[in-house]
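Severity: low
Component: inverse-folding endpoint
Summary: output formatting inconsistent between runs
Steps to reproduce: submit the following structure tokens with default settings.
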């Protein structure tokens, strides 16, 4: 079972408050590739993963945000389903567990480097699986240059692999449509995981 200290160290890499956008709102940067979903929420953790995540956010993130308006920059670059993605149900539960002041303060979620499948999924099921408030705040950002329209360069740290992936997309635009694969050996995960019982139940209810 993962120790609390190790979970804390891993989450510190994934979640960071960094700078402000052009409207002066704080930025919560989330790097999907750094999120330890397999280690944190895998089989045998006995609920420790979700508790560790909630505890970390309550102690290290929410106090810095307070009740002020803020935005989320989520970097999806090179996320792998088996390693980094906790599943749709977990994401929805995490959002619903946010304190009211924090949830009301969220102004936008910038989804950097979404794949075609992620776009199609959220366009089809987003309104059903997530609250209307969160769905309306979702902004797809296919290139970093478009992110800088909302925040200044240097306000938020962009990992080198995200920059490299952005450059690869720029030179191979068909990757955006799933027609060309990345040169990376591990295929980046494009579509949200639907491997949990809660997620599949949600889709059955829709149909």
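Observed output (run 2 of 3):
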């Amino acid at each position: 079972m993962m120790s609390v200290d190790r979970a804390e160290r891993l989450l510190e890499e994934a979640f960071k408050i960094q700078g402000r956008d052009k409207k002066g709102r704080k930025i919560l940067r989330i790097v999907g590739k750094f999120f330890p979903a397999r280690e944190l929420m895998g089989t045998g953790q006995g609920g420790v993963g979700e508790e560790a995540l909630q505890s970390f956010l309550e102690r290290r993130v929410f106090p810095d945000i307070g009740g002020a308006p803020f935005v989320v920059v989520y970097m999806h670059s090179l996320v792998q389903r088996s390693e980094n993605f906790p599943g749709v149900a977990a994401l929805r539960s995490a959002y619903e567990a946010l304190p009211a002041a924090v949830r009301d303060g969220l102004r936008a979620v910038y989804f950097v480097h979404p794949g075609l499948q992620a776009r199609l999924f959220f366009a089809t099921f987003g309104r059903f699986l997530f609250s209307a408030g969160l769905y309306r705040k979702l902004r797809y950002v296919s290139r970093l240059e478009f992110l800088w329209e909302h925040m200044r360069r240097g306000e938020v740290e962009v990992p080198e692999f995200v920059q490299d992936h952005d450059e690869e997309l720029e030179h191979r635009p068909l990757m955006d449509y799933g027609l060309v694969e990345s040169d990376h050996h591990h295929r980046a995960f494009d579509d949200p995981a639907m491997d949990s019982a809660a997620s599949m139940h949600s889709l059955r209810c829709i149909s």
